[in-house]
Amino acid sequence: MFTPARGKLGKAKGVGLHSPSSPAPAVIPQLSPHQPTPGSVRGTLSPLFPWSSASSVPPRTPPPPEIGEKALVDGGEPVLVCHFPQQLRNSLIERPHQRADAGVYGGMDGRSGLSWVLHGSNLFVWSHLNSRAAQGCAVLTIPPQFSERDGRAGDSKFSENWLVSIVGWRTEDQNDVSFVKACKSAGVVMCHRKTLAVVYWPDVFKDGDTSVVSLGTGDKIEGSSTPALEESRLSGRKSFSSWTSSTGGPGGEVVNSLIASAVPGETPQACVAIAARTNGELWRYDCCPLGITRQQITRDVVARQDVGLIAFNSSSARSMVWRLPEDSPQLGVRQLLLLTAAELECWNVELASGGKVSEAWRFNILGNPDTQKDLSGQKQVWLLDLEVDDSGNFFTVLVASFSKDRGNSSSFMQYSLLTFFDNAPPDGDLVRKAPMQVILPKARVEEEDVLYSMRLRVGGNPMGSAVILAGDGTCTIAHHSNGSLKLYQFDLAWGAGKVLDASVVPALEGDEGAWLVLTEKSGVWAISEKAVILGGVEPPERSLSRRGSSIEDSSKEERQRGSSIAPRRVVSESGALNNRLPKAVNQRPLHDEEAEAIVGRMFQQYLTTGRVDSALEKLERAGAFEREVEMNIFARTSRVIVDTLAKHWVAGGSGSAAIMAAVSSQLIEKQRRHQQYLTFLSVSNCHEELQLKQRGALHAIMEHGEKLAAMVQLRELHNSRAQSRMQVSGSFDEPDSVENIETSGALWETVQLVGEKARRNNVMLMDREKSEVFYTRVSDLEEFFACIQQHASSIIGQEQPIRMQVERICEIAEATTGVIRSAIRYRDAQFSWYPSPEGLTPWYCRPTVRSGVWKVASLCLEVKAEASVSVPSLVPKLVSWLEIVADVLLEGYAGAITAKVEREEEYRGLQMEYWGRRDTLLLALQQHAKEVADDSVQYILDEGKATQQRRAVLQKMYPSLIAIARRHAGYQTLYNICTDLDDMNQLRSLMRESMGLREGRFSHYVFDHFCTTKQYSKLLRLGEEFQEELEDFLQQHIHLRWLHEILMQQYNSACSTLHSLALSSNPLIDEETTYVRKKDVGPMAKDKLRERRRLLYLAKLSALAGGEMVGGDKLAMIDASIVILEVQEEAHQKGVVSDEVLLPVQLVGTCLKSGHRDLVMRAFDVLAFAGDDFRKNNKLLLEDAWLHAAEQDNWASMKDAAEERGWSDEQYWLTLQGTVLCQMAKRCYGDGAAFYGAPFQEILPLFESDRTEEERPRISKADSAVKTVESILSQHGGFSDGREAMLTALKMGVSSDNDLDDKELESMIDS
């Protein structure tokens, strides 16, 4: 399945689903001995079963080593940790009649250090971390009632139906180390995948085969949600009649994950187990020696539709893990992580018996925008497995996706790792930690059962590596080396069978350990970091995914791969080059060696004859231009030149002076040789070819020249430091004193440490001088900075006097900055040789170098604080070097960020780190300058003279700091400097110069600072010079924008701003508004609506100042807003609405429902001045207003009173004039009606008779009832009795003269 480019590929066989501690199916071979392969690891195992009596392990085979032995740490091949226990060997040997396809299932528990194998009807449990602990293997017998129903123990189907989880019991006298090395007490929970039956052994090492059983009930358990169906205790022989004939749940759903946890408290040997079924069901088991209770956990298993990518049955369970390896016992709660087909769910599990299990949070993985971006173009996506680190905050998900190649329409699978980080633990605020890591870009298409058989493990060395266990028994370790992915597949020369599970050597000393694998035939093996690095190869489909799928490219790829798939071997350390090549490079294809030999011969020919006969053509045929970066043949040859060893090493008894003299001459010779090599590349046209095809390789070659120049500078610095010390001590005539001076100092000790590390990595250098080794390994100059980062305390000598510490820090600071600046000078001088720099990160901008330089800067800051108190005279020297170090460090960060941006990689995290360290360093430098200035005026009593003196000192010290801050956008420092100098002219000058910086404009920083500190007058005065910039800034500060517009005499813009501000939904009163009105904030806060009306009047004045004519549209709109705001003021005074501005539709609805007669009438003012578009779009609201107007008068009682009391026509007329209908008809339809926009008549006619003859045929019968005020009033409940009065009131309202004579009134009533 996951098979790198090797001699043989594993055959994928689909098996079922498995939990992290579940058995992986394997196949037991027939018992036939095989002879060992020559050169096999440790020469130990000759037959397939090394414990076979017929052909056992050779007598002189050493016993398996302990984990901590050097063989495991330094070995280049896998190391046998422990054999299978004798009881398991006997079980395998005693079954010669067993079927060939019978299953061996096993797993490993990393927390307890226990392994287990299920074979036949027995479960074998032993410790794999101590070879002697295997003698104490626990053999557990599965109760017979299970084998009676589930089939014979020899059947392959019997073992594959069980999942196993181990719970370690830690005693009070055991710490982490003793518990892991020798787990003396452990419980085992075993769950049947189909029936949910559980077998529990409370203590496998003390109680032996005593078990507790909870039997499943087939179909019955599917509908049960109550606990404690069956509880019993037995000694392993009692049968149960409740075992039903059903062995599976509905639909073939099975348990695919099982985890267990110890329960803290008084109950001994109690644990909680959680089982997850493929359909998403969760079941809880409370296990103790007295019995088992079962309870189904309520969970929504309905498939979700918002998963973002194609994933069927998105609620189905994939795997489960505990979020943390162990939790605080007093809390009694652990968090469970459940991976579904689309999401990651977190559940809180109360460990007490019968405790609750509740969902804490969930995260939609496939719906995450970053995930969708990474998986764009994929046809279908599967989330396969989940792992979490020991901190519980980093989540790694194994993902498979299906896609098609657009070039040839072929289908393929892609396997990747997604890593998420909990940004706010434990609340589940997940963010992506890094871009998706593609493990296999193009692989063959597999069935779903094969995909679901894959499992993921994380946490071992190399740091950041991951293990993928496939269902066919292959074990693949993926890790990154120099920015490229490498794959290592575990495989022994004689065959160890399938890999059943994998774990990690526990971090007993705070470091992650080697990988451990449990094999089918050969016990437990450890894979060291060195073995993974040396055996790693590129993914087999990487080239295919980059170059397409043509037959020619594929065949070429196969030829290249065929030469590189020889069995893994450790290349002998016969030369300095092979030991220092990048990881996994020692396995070099044959054509690489041939190409390198051709380059060497051509270069030698050029040096002797000056000719390069057809060099380019020969090297192209040899494939010299195919490899990338440091894998490239030309880059390797360049490394050989700069790292070559001297032909004649200086004798070991020679003095250091002789050694250093030889080193200096050798460095000069290497510089000359490397320059000749560059000339050879240019003459042979290879330089131009590299510029076109392999920019990274050419860049690596030029970096070798940079490091050579840096080494020469470092050597010269050491010589100058030694001469200075000799001049101070006057020891020129004493040879021993001269020797001691030359071999002392912080730089010398650093060189010794780096040389010692290089010697440990190469046995050929063990008897050589450390300093000579250091100056020979030019390409490893980054180790100099790594050593400073790791051993800074010992290098500066923190136990020494402060004066000595300052001297040593300054020496290291001079060395680090001198090295980097020498490299930069070389780059500037040799600029024409370099390729295009886009996307290439210089070596001095890489993390190792940055970390070392930052460590030097941190030490300067720490020692400065102490020296300021004890020896103030040393501070200026220390700060001067701190300034140089800060400049170099910040330039390194800027280069690294630029390269990431050009490569379109994520750079925000690096940028935040850059900004933080920039501000720290610049603030420290500025603070020192202020302290010096303050000290200079300490004894000046005249305040004016003191101010002048202080300013003069600052003007002398600030220019260099300003230069650094300008280059790196240190806006806070620049502003503070201008403030200290009280120099607004310099502030304005800096604001003009920094307009094009990537991080943002300095002018915006100044604007924001003035706004935050409420210096509004200064802010607005800057608008005279930075008008456009301030306008852009004030887009987010509308409360101040209108002031700037009035100041700039932009009255029309100020009018629009004030109008929108008065009607905005945002709170009007804030800190900025205190500048707007020179009054106490209290009255404004009490009358916000009146303040808004004041802003509308200001808008009206601004419109008039801008040339707006009286009666114009803009003034009419403002007047309409004033009327609407007055209505809200009146409603607010009556307590109907709040003082926050409402929308017209909200205000109308509130007034109509208020129950106040006058507010109902004021609602028509809002409708009139809200505009014709508002009335058109809210006709239902308009209808509701007329109905509420009709309800304000009792028309029935009015009619009865007129009849009973005999009202005269004039009295009747006066009564109708007082109705709301009459007044609103006059307000909206009368001759003096005031409104904004089109008149009411165009939107809603008053009477049916007002419609034109052309309109009536177009109005349908359904619409006719809502087209006029008359038809609206017909819906009123009192219309039948008061129709005549209502219509008369409307006609009286629209009449131009209310003083009607009797005849007119009579005719109106009659009509």
In short:
The chain is 45% helix and 14% strand. By secondary structure, the chain is α+β, with helices and mostly antiparallel strands. The longest helix is centred in the middle third of the chain and has 35 residues.
Q: How would you describe this structure to a colleague?
A:
Helices cover 45% and strands 14% of the residues. It contains 51 helices and 30 strands. The strands form 7 sheets. It has a 5-stranded antiparallel sheet, with no helix packed on it. Strands 19, 20, 21, 22 and 23 form a 5-stranded antiparallel sheet that branches. It is extended and about 130 Å long. The termini are far apart.
Low-confidence stretches: 1-74, 218-251, 541-588, 648-654, 735-739, 1069-1086, 1257-1266
H/I helix tally:
51
**Largest sheet composition:** 5 strands, antiparallel
Strand content: 5-15%
Whole-angstrom Rg:
43 Å
Helix content: 40-55%
Global outline: extended
Distance linking N and C termini:
95 Å
pLDDT averaged over residues: 75
Assign the structural class, choosing from mainly alpha, mainly beta, alpha/beta, alpha+beta, or little secondary structure. alpha+beta
- Please report the total strand number as a whole number: 30
Strand order of the largest sheet: 6-7-8-9-10
Domain Nucleoporin Nup133/Nup155-like C-terminal: 881-1066
GO molecular function, one term: structural constituent of nuclear pore
Domain Nucleoporin Nup133/Nup155-like N-terminal: 83-525
Pfam families: Nucleoporin_C (PF03177), Nucleoporin_N (PF08801)
